Request: fold
Amino acid sequence: MSGETPGNGLDATTRDFANGQKVFNRYTLIKTLGRGGMGVVWLAHDDELERNVALKFLPELIVHDRAVLGDMKRETRRSLDLTHKNIVRIYDFVHSDQSGCISMEYVDGDTLSNLRADKPHKVFETHDLKDWTSQLCDALDYAHNHARIIHRDLKPANLMVNKRGDLKVSDFGISRSLSDSVSMLTMEQGRSGTLVFMSPQQLDGERGSHLDDIYSFGATAYELLTSKPPFSSGNVDRQIREKIPPSMTVRRTELEVEGEPIDETWERVVAACLAKDPARRPQSFAEIAQKLEIASPKTVRARQASEAKSTGGGLLASILALKSNPMALIGAGAAILFIAAVAVWSFGFRKPAQPASTTAPKPVAVANTETRGANELGGVMVNTSPSRATVTLGGMDAGKSPITFKGIHAGKYPLRISLDGYTPVEREIEVKAGQFVDLGTIALERVTGMAGGSRHVTEPPKVLTEPSNVLNERKDEPPPQQPAKATGQTVVPLNDFGGG
Reply:
């Protein structure tokens, strides 16, 4: 990219790129996904990790200012801590002297803003939004209370739905950093977010709070249910600070929108989220979910797990009933002996002998757990920076990073990562049934030499991204036991992540 930058440089990222072009010696551009005031987004193939990603190119104005670029890079790295399944993952920040971009998870779907526009009456009904709102509340509660990150630009255009129907929150921290950086460089008034979804406190430039996200959620729900945000014309700044918006039912009438009656509970909760005083808003997204009487994804998963165990519970109850009745237990034992005798006669005298299998069982990594069900299988995804490190799981050399392990029994496993010239990483991880644990990108620390031939490590290894269900080693805990060898389900390493 070269030549003079027209205007203020915000359109520089839309030029000089083409389908099939390779950028940063790693990404092959496929097609444009979108354009906006803060740059262009491309679908690209990550040739190193062998998966499709979304590349959000930065305005040239930012790339050419080293101080601002450094701030943007730090803010983006903070987003690496977000590893929730309903939040779009940030993979990397790459730049050169002429361009820069953020590599993130590609969501094969559309935004709630576009999906609303496709509805017959241009609005959603409350029952349409229940599942997505449940996932949104879970994601924002995780971001606020675990990762300690505020979105600051929540709106329908930043809420995506993939082809499986799962909600994905995009642009966590990125839109805020871009708009702040551009505002500083162009000397424009800085506002972190999109005006019609901003809280009064954001308009006044106050320090960001999770209660700003709660206001933005209220404005977002208002638009999705009425087709317009609470304030969209006239002096929007003043209205956001001073005026109380009409109820969503009234707004639908004003806009002549046809639809089902809006549930009174949704009316009350959305109005509370739009309160001018932050203290009068719901104080968390968990509280919003509770007030809307929608089950959280965790509650749904717990209920499904409970239902799955009900079969086993019925068997246990039957066994206990037999133990309490000795005669019934004797009768049951006699029946079992009779069935066994019939089976021996049938297979021993009526079936020809089958040749024994000569295939030796494959070794498996065995979890350090007392019980595990036959179907309690999960997986682990490991990536390192730099890549091609040797990854050992459960005492087995599996291959080089990036790597995916599939078909692993639920439980705890020792993990070791080693690479010549870098400090080995050792930890214990937990695999959960039916889930893939994405360890994110683990930054390996280079070993530096010292006088006398000894070696010195500048600082301990750092994990750039790590999910909450990964168990880190602690100094006050004993080291994990090495697993015993056994036969069973094979751990299958794959040199890719299997998609996002």
The mean pLDDT is 76. Residues 377-494 form one domain. The chain has three domains: 1-106, 109-307, 377-494. The first strand starts at residue 22 and ends at 23.
